[in-house]
Amino acid sequence: MGGLRLALSLFTVAPVRASSLDRPAVRHAMLLAPLAGALLGLVLGLAGRGLVLAGATPLLGAAVLVALSLLLTRGLHVDGLADTADGLGSYATSDKALEIMKKSDIGPFGVAAIAAVLLIDAAAAASLLARPFWSSVATAAAAFAAGRLGATVACRRGLPAARPEGMGALVASTVPLAWLAAVTLVTAGAASLASPWRGPLAVVVAVAVSWGLTTHARRRLGGLTGDVIGAAVELSTAGALIVLAVG
């Protein structure tokens, strides 16, 4: 339960307080990140589909869903996405790129990344909300569970931290690969309840996106940062939403 509380506090604005913030607690939180994502997606799906039932268009329901996702996560992950885009897009040395990522302002790469991802999320969510009630809600839960699995992937064993301090240093290499595989299989199995084959495929795509991004971050930055985790969550969610929205 301590790990779940920490996962909810890290990935949502749920009013829960973690009992500890050390590497064992973080490991449990990252392993439970997909569950936190599924709960978030469930709330978002209910809100978006509820608006559609009340007479709103699926596009308006999707816009509200995306806006609520930012509100219920404090915009933390899109901030990481923007910083990561600015750092990686600079083509500077690793030290200079990390310095860029620490700045509070957002550059053109960050603005473009946020705009593109939110547009994709809204367009995909509109497709989901046009479906029957429980299908809409279940696919939203599956998409956000797959997106938070991106954080679990980012914290896999063998991927070092880019800095000796910060969130990246706390969570880097906390998830053993065997546990990552187990959580991925469980998440894929749960996602199959939303869509028998698109659900598991969405999970596979989310894992591939996060793995690719974090591998690139290791090559360019030297390892993992908290911003890279946020970017992995946002990009993995977008990838999962695309898969679930098509067809």
UniProtKB/TrEMBL annotation:
Keywords: Cell membrane, Cobalamin biosynthesis, Magnesium, Membrane, Transferase, Transmembrane, Transmembrane helix. InterPro entries: CobS (IPR003805). Pfam families: CobS. It is a multi-pass membrane protein. Its cofactor is Mg(2+). This is Adenosylcobinamide-GDP ribazoletransferase. The chain crosses the membrane at residues 42-72, 106-127, 133-155, 167-191, 197-216, 228-246. Its EC number is 2.7.8.26. Joins adenosylcobinamide-GDP and alpha-ribazole to generate adenosylcobalamin (Ado-cobalamin). Also synthesizes adenosylcobalamin 5'-phosphate from adenosylcobinamide-GDP and alpha-ribazole 5'-phosphate. Pathway: Cofactor biosynthesis; adenosylcobalamin biosynthesis; adenosylcobalamin from cob(II)yrinate a,c-diamide: step 7/7. HAMAP family: CobS (MF_00719). It is found in: Cell membrane. Its main location: membrane. It comes from the Bacteria. It catalyses: alpha-ribazole + adenosylcob(III)inamide-GDP = adenosylcob(III)alamin + GMP + H(+); alpha-ribazole 5'-phosphate + adenosylcob(III)inamide-GDP = adenosylcob(III)alamin 5'-phosphate + GMP + H(+). Belongs to the CobS family.
